[in-house]
Amino acid sequence: MSAIDSYTDLTRAVSKNLAPLRTHNAEVMQGFGALSKAALAPGVLDEKTKELIAMAIGVASRCDACLGFHAKALVRLGATPEEFREMLGVAVYMGGGPSLMYAANALAAFEEFSAQPA
């Protein structure tokens, strides 16, 4: 496993740490929430495809929390391990060696959330 002990714990901690921003920067957080909702809304691309894109960017950007949140969403949306691994190949292609290291972390996050009961 990566340096992260649990992506479940990481996403919970990040959510908790965002609470002060929700209180003290409410308009910013509401704006970000609206942007997220609009960006992920089904259109020509479905929500799962958009989440796969978001995960690839999270891998290329080396964002630990992004790996957790997007892995959880992809499990909820029914992404298969094959789809996930194929997406990781594109992320590595676009991000090089550092993305390869984060691809391993992303796979760990996906496997962790896949192992949890629905």
From TrEMBL:
Q: What Pfam families does the entry give?
A: CMD (PF02627)
Which InterPro entries does the UniProt record give?
AhpD-like, AhpD_core, CMD-like
List the molecular function annotations (GO) for this entry.
Answer: peroxiredoxin activity
Report domain Carboxymuconolactone decarboxylase-like positions.
Answer: 27-108
What the entry lists under NCBIfam families is as follows: ahpD_dom
> What is the recorded name of this protein?
Alkylhydroperoxidase
Species of provenance = Pseudoxanthomonas taiwanensis
